[in-house]
């Protein structure tokens, strides 16, 4: 099996790499790499998978991921349907050791060191901090050499002293994914994303992974920190939350759209995951606007 994807590896002679990607849709490949990554979305909507978390993202999403933390920003279906839409993201990759252990262990770097440790769980940046970082990233994309490095250090300093950070994965999250899992988990992830609206049988996806159903169940849970059925349920409810906020479809229409055959099952699972009912979720969202 192929090893972890290194989409834009940092040259050995450089500290970091900044890429601006403008495409019809984001790369839908579930992957991980040894570099830290700061992803700043400027155009596009969809579903974001970081570690064992499933969340919706929009055109101002910003996330810092640690080394080898699995992730994918999956664009909404409309971006794959050739409707003239496009996505834009600026991604900054930097090596875990670009500052060197001696420098990173100095007192002045304590906050940044803790930030990088926390990035193993994935960090979502929000609020005023996100606004500041977006401006710096847009400028950094056009910079070169030492100015580029200074901008990265500035970003890390701002993040290390900010309260506008949300840990994406829970305390105690353990990343058990290795290079040998790369191809198998990509196949599984892509299959789930393409078929979550219909019934997904354990036997079918286990066969895709070339494993017996029981073996696959254990394998999947060890790699995603949740059962196969829980993963499917969280994905479907995440999609339902997005639809409840973005259109006027009835609750029952949304339930069917997200793969539920009965409204009662949908309501039960929705409340189990979100703590509220679909109708109340929509009502609360509209009150915030």
UniProtKB/TrEMBL annotation:
Pfam families: HTH_18
Superkingdom as given in the UniProt entry: Bacteria
Endoplasmic reticulum recorded as keyword: no
Keywords, ordered alphabetically: DNA-binding, Transcription, Transcription regulation
InterPro entries attached to this UniProt entry: Homeodomain-like_sf, HTH_AraC, HTH_AraC-typ_CS, RmlC-like_jellyroll, RmlC_Cupin_sf, Tscrpt_reg_AraC-type_HTH
GO molecular function ontology, one term from the record: sequence-specific DNA binding
Domain named HTH araC/xylS-type: residues: 186-284
Keyword DNA-binding listed: yes
Protein's UniProt name: AraC family transcriptional regulator
